[in-house]
Design brief:
Elements (H helix, E strand, L loop, with lengths): L1 E3 L4 H11 L1 H7 L1 E5 L1 H9 L4 E7 L6 H9 L4 E4 L1 H8 L8 E6 L30 H13 L7
Parallel strand pairs: 1-4, 3-4
Antiparallel strand pairs: 2-5, 3-5
Helix pairs in contact: 1-2
């Protein structure tokens, strides 16, 4: 496991995945943070390219099991740098994942009507600028009875 404790070239590449949409799409990777988003990415079959873990603490059972089950290079990152990548002022995330973006092909999504026969309610996002925007749209779709399928 490699250690990253300073803002070196490797750190700058991860930072670019967060801040530069063009380079993120060119690289074909995104930095995923949070228990639910990482779990969903893995369960959806997206390829984890790298794990970034807190090098100064023992991982939770969830993080230990996930990083052991999904083989990818692991980097022990200092809490300060993880905090920066995680966008948190108070605490560093215990794990982040560099995940391969899925193919940009809508054919991979199954379009189907709701179980009650209601017509399909679909939303397509084209390069949203903020994860918060995606969350807002997802909550709105849920409020209108939408479902997700992939």
């Amino acid at each position: 496991m490699r250690r990253v404790t300073v803002r070196n070239a490797t750190f700058q590449q991860w930072e670019t995945l967060l801040t530069n949409r063009t380079k993120r799409h060119r690289a074909g990777h995104v930095l995923v943070q949070g228990v639910r988003p990482i779990t969903v990415a893995v369960e959806s079959g997206l390829a984890v390219r790298e794990w970034l873990v807190d090098g100064d603490r023992t991982l939770s059972s969830w993080a230990s099991e996930l990083t052991a089950r999904v083989r990818a290079p692991r980097y022990a990152v200092s809490p300060e740098l993880l905090r920066e990548l995680g966008g948190k002022d108070d605490a560093a995330p215990e794990v982040l994942a560099v995940v391969a973006l899925p193919d940009d092909d809508l054919a991979r999504l199954a379009a189907r009507a709701a179980d009650d026969g209601a017509p399909l309610l679909a939303v397509a996002l084209d390069r949203p600028t903020s994860p918060g925007n995606v969350g807002t749209v997802a909550r709105s779709v849920d409020a209108f009875g939408g479902t997700a399928s992939s």
